[in-house]
Design brief:
Layout lengths: L1 H35 L78 H10 L4 H4 L10 H29 L7 H26 L12 H7 L5 H25 L4 H31 L3 H20 L2 H12 L5 H26 L9 H4 L5
Length: 374
């Protein structure tokens, strides 16, 4: 038995010696190879490939902002972007790079003059649902009120989810010549993800849970809009965005605790920024494409009809009435408050359409027009 153990130790020792010798040989061979390697002469031809040398941008009062970089050729934003690669605006083009195939290459199809400023605002006003909302202020609510709040949060989560998916599917089609818009829309997707997170947390934080899935007609209309980003923006920002923003405002007013108040307030700030981009883009698109006015009006005829039909579903209406009325017993007065909220939404929507020059007149959907005097 002792001889067996000794033999094993001798074998292990031999293996270790062989491994050491192999490592030493490899080290010597590698060193020799390094000595024999011929270092190529530097080319450096890339160093003079600049469209504008000597540009120096200095920080202003707000720091070195995205918009402050638009100097010299870097500030030239053409009406049509020729390049089909991911080349940053102002970079030196490299011949032979395969095209990506961007479909949105006209400035009029995505541009908004406020995009760079909105990007700066978005990154400065970031918030964290996990810690910036005082969740510990939530106290038990009557079951009917809690169920109504959970239902509202379920629907608003779907609004946010649709926003993420809609922007995500259009981002890949937008050329990099208009990076201000692409970077802003990236922040909007993050905002929407944060809203999705916050509303789910509220639904699950007080003994309730998620409610009934939305009927989803407007969601599908937004997601399935394929005519162009401008056409999608009509539904995402002008119609749905104004409606969601109105709900946020009323949610803050009728909040049951500090957590809900902060949640709706923060979401309202974000949503106002999103709608601001959407309106600015639509106005730019209308000013730079004559046919857009006719097209947009026709699309609104369709979109408003779909929106009005979805409002016939009682789930969102009744949950809001219960929240506004403080329970099922107060739902009658809560329904009057709901009508008032819808009046605020419709009037704001019509102000926006008038500002854009898309006056609705007799074409305005009757299912929405009835709220004008509410």
């Amino acid at each position: 038995m002792a001889d067996t153990e000794s033999d094993k130790q001798d074998a292990q020792g031999g293996d270790e010696n062989q491994l050491t010798q192999l490592r030493e040989a490899t080290r010597k061979r590698t060193s020799a190879e390094e000595i024999d390697i011929e270092v190529p002469k530097p080319d450096l031809s890339w160093m003079d490939k600049s469209l504008e040398w000597g540009v120096r941008v200095k920080p202003g009062k707000k720091g070195l902002t995205l918009g402050s970089l638009n100097v010299g050729i870097y500030g030239h934003i053409p009406d049509y972007w020729e390049d089909q690669t991911r080349m940053p605006r102002g970079a030196y083009p490299l011949p032979g790079v395969p095209p990506i195939g961007y479909s949105i290459r006209h400035k009029r199809d995505l541009w908004a003059d406020n995009a760079a400023d909105l990007y700066e605002e978005a990154i400065q006003r970031r918030w964290i649902p996990a810690s910036d909302i005082p969740w510990n202020t939530i106290e038990p609510l009557p079951d009917d009120v809690e169920a109504a709040m959970c239902q509202l949060c379920t629907e608003l989560s779907q609004h946010a989810n649709v926003e993420i998916e809609t922007i995500g599917q259009w981002q890949q089609h937008m050329s990099y010549g208009y990076h201000e818009v692409k970077t802003f829309l990236a922040t909007e997707m993050f905002d929407a993800a944060r809203h999705y997170e916050a509303f789910r947390k509220r639904a699950l934080s007080n003994g309730g849970g998620l409610g009934v899935e939305s009927k989803g007609d407007v969601n599908r209309m937004i997601l399935e809009s394929k005519g162009g980003w401008s056409e999608t923006s009509l539904f995402l920002y002008l119609l749905r965005g104004t409606f969601t923003m109105t709900i946020y405002r009323y949610g803050e007013t009728f909040a049951h605790n500090a957590a809900e108040r902060v949640m709706f307030s923060r979401c309202l700030e974000d949503k106002a920024r999103h709608v601001s981009y959407g309106l600015a883009h639509l106005r730019y698109a209308l000013a730079n494409e004559q046919d857009n006015r006719i097209v947009f009006r026709q699309l609104l005829n369709i979109g408003e009809g779909v929106f009005a039909r979805e409002l016939e579903d009682p789930v969102l209406r009744e949950s809001l009435a219960i929240i506004f009325g403080g329970g099922i017993e107060g739902a009658k007065s809560g329904m009057r408050q709901y009508e008032h909220m819808m009046g605020d939404f419709v009037r704001q929507y019509l102000l926006y359409t008038d500002w854009l020059g898309l006056h609705r007149g007799e074409s305005f959907a009757k299912g929405l027009a009835r709220f004008v005097e509410a």
